[in-house]
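Entry 14. Ran structure prediction on the chain below.
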Amino acid sequence: MIGVNSAIVSPTGGSIGIGFAIPAETVKTVAATLKDKGTVSRGWIGVQIQTMSPEIARGLGVDQQIEGTLVADVELESPAASAGLAPGDIVTSFAGAPTTSDRDLSRRAADLAPGTSVKLGIVRKNKEMTVDVTLGELPNARGKVGGTQVKANETRAAGSDATSVGLTLVPANDLLGPRA
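Output, structure tokens:
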């Protein structure tokens, strides 16, 4: 594999031979898109997923040899919700090709442009069906706090003149909820 290093494990400051890389083909595609458009947007279905296993299949009462991706949850107002996907559905194909893992499905959706219509093969309650999904744009999670988008360099504290360094802080009590 040829790629661009994205992280190197180095507990002592020296290399111990463990590193993580972005595949060269991904870098090439992203670089070309950035050059042409100035930004990269990725396709998004809007589901929480996990890879099927024989144990999960047994628990759902479906063929234990089924390969695909289990829909664990569907995000509100997502392309998946609009298409009628539901928790418990098993995605067996994406755009005509089999899906074998959650990573495979996520990557293939992200590789397509938002607005692209794809057919998903699914199994729902032991019945095979096809669902048309129009991909949305993968939301950018950076700067989100409690569902509120925080813009770059926005200052949250009243009277503060500090500039943003990529962090958004909230009082811990806001995260803990009301006290009993």
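The chain has three domains: 3-37, 43-137, 140-180. Will compare against last week's run tomorrow.
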